[in-house]
């Protein structure tokens, strides 16, 4: 399918009119000085393990990792051609010989020459199936399965060979094209077609090959099935370009065709019928090019006269810098009136006719670029405000130090000036100063809506511009208001006119509910959860956010947040990883092309087009470049295995024959590695694991070598994997090696050590016995000396014994006297014991009397409890039973009022009714006392605010919002746990008292404050009012039953008593504080 699509694209290209495009892909140059080689590189090939082979005038260069290593093929040999087969065999052709490469068991690259009787210069190499064709001027050599056949040229002037799908074609100078069949050269049908040379083979698939002829530079197709040659029409302009550049080689990469030339670098033909040249004008190291190849990441490798170049032609990126006559430091980018402009620290440039041209009449720094209707404006701090007409700058006004600009939606633009304040410019180019505040150095201004714009000031903060008819007011904000301190703050506008600020700690927005002190006037944008510094930011027409930030290596990178839905974004930054590290000055989404952004930086200008289809998952391989121990290299990076087709194949695995055995003295080992992902390979990362040493795989890092020291004897496998800058993992690799045990750890050495140890023990035992015998003799002499000393001491002891006997007699006499004294003490002690027994008897009698009296007291208490319970029950039943008659009295009083309407009777009836209600209230509270004493609390979650609302409704006859104000404050955001009825009783009686005992003479309005807090596992409820208060000498008695603290009290005196017993029932406590005629506060503490 892919071949069919490519063929269609190719035929489309061939039959279309081409136009030159303005492209500049990333290109990396490596000069001959950097490679330490002679100039004139001729051919390139990438073999399947990932290494790049480069044919050079001095021999061969191999890129392995970051290194370019030279290999000398033969003395004064020039590599004219390289060819890599499908089996990964590498053949070479030099000016004196030809052959193939292989490796020895240390991984060193070696050459194997193919023997031939003729000394000839090979011009080209091609392969087909298992055969390799070497073309010289005089003959054609076919190498097949180790055998070489020679076909002599008819004209002895061979020029080129073409390989189609199943044929090899030979071109001799001024001779028809022939093909090889049964080791013979056979003419094609078009025998009259005799171009002098064939110069390139752009396409070769589907049974067809396309090539250019010389000197006419026409494009021909060779059809295998018909063996005919057909000329295809080619656009004249493109044909002239090809003719002028002299094509040398061609290569198809995806649907793009690259043609190396001898004068103009590399010609790139693209599927959209556009073409461009990679040459010295856009950073190619030389216009003289030869061999070209592609790597596994679709990068184009170019051999030139002055070095090697790698160009990323299949890429979303383009790059312009000083090679394109641009300044290195770009400030701003903008699209205006269909043209692209850039500004710098020196000049302003316009993209015109595929070139960057300077804008006349404008020199120096330009930081602000804006469009007002169709008027393109440029703000130059050192010169003023200019209108740009095509490539000419015309001064509009002499505003001092204008730095930036942004347009209204009503035909005006805001221009902040460092010296004078804020101006407005209308579409008639008339300016008006709307605020003269000296604001500092402006950075960004962003219009939000008809009444608001925001202005950022370098190093200082933000101004909110409140726009009015002809004036504006400014409000200043900085880190004191919650915006992180940043040198430059970009301002972007998201959907619903939301202003977002790019700061050193992420994206910030205005806080819809700031504190009164405005310390949190700015807060992070909740749905843009980025905590890294946002260095630059911009929003495209699809509300995608493009921004610059830093990565873990402190490199500046570009990121994209893709807009999915209102307030919903996701990271979509994979293709942006290619951006080179530098300071980003400006990000500009292209208003005319969806998915295209421009980036101005300190290394030039960049264009990124996410619409270009690039496969970021192309496979690549992890490469083991070198393994060394100390100064000795034990592996040079190549594995090859023999096969039946002739040359050995290079492989990416380690054959058993390549596993080295190292001596124990070489147990310090270093691995050097890389990856075949050559796109910005500095950002490749690696992870490794040495089995038996490392506990797990290492973290991903950019180090390309790893050392291990003091490894124990044994077999080791060093495993390695790589990841490219897009996060794609390559094929892993490994290296196995064995470290021998030292001689002193071998089995024979261990046996020797055991025998030697036993002999050593025997010698030690014998020496010990000899020493012991000698020691015994010494002891005998010592005993004789000590015996004499003992006899002498015996005589002296006997003398001392006599003296001791005399002293013993004296001691016996003294002992008798002591015994007499002891008898007297024993008699006294017996008297004390008799007295003690008498006291113990008295104590027992006393304890019996106490027990009897305690039993009587317990019995009395039980009777009191029973009496109290009966009294309580009596009061409860009496109260309950009295309520019935009271209700009937109230009913009769109400009926009497209706039937006897005289004034005097109504007064008596009112008094009866009022007294009955007081009696009813007293009975209700007595009933509540009984219920509280007999109630078991049911702890449930409660909301105090809801209970207070219930009480307010119940007490509406005492409460009105004009006379009293309730204030409720809670720091507890969850329900509290208590008994509903008990808590209701407490709050009801306290609030009722607060309403009853208002201070009628107070100047301030009556207020009841209820606050709830939680501290130390307790719930604190505080009820405070500014009523008449309680005198200090009455505070201790207010919780007693039937106690009234005020003459104004008409109640029963049971309210606060009910409060107290209800709080205690909930295992809480209550305290009161009061200042007479000022306020009263009740503090209730309940278990949390």
End-to-end C-alpha gap? 75 Å
Strand content: 35-45%
- Strand order, sheet with most strands: 1-27-26-25-24
Tally of helical runs: 8
Radius of gyration equals 53 Å
How many DSSP E strands?
75
Task: Specify the CATH homologous superfamily of the domain at 2-315.
Answer: YVTN repeat-like/Quinoprotein amine dehydrogenase
Helix/strand-derived category reads alpha+beta
| CATH fold category name of the domain at 2-315 | Methylamine Dehydrogenase, Chain H
* Main beta-sheet annotation: 5 strands, mixed
The assigned CATH architecture of the domain at 2-315 is 7 Propeller
**Percentage of residues assigned to helices:** 10-25%
Shape: flat
Query: Which CATH class of the domain at 2-315 is shown?
Result: Mainly Beta
Question: Can you put this structure into words, describing what you see?
Answer:
The chain is built from 8 helices and 75 strands. Among the domains are: 314 residues, 7 Propeller (Methylamine Dehydrogenase, Chain H); 121 residues, Immunoglobulins (Immunoglobulin-like); 154 residues, no CATH class; 152 residues, Heat Shock Protein 90, CATH 3.30.565. Helix 4 runs antiparallel to helix 5 and helix 7 packs antiparallel against helix 8. It is α+β, with helices and mostly antiparallel strands. Strand 16 and strand 17 form a beta hairpin.
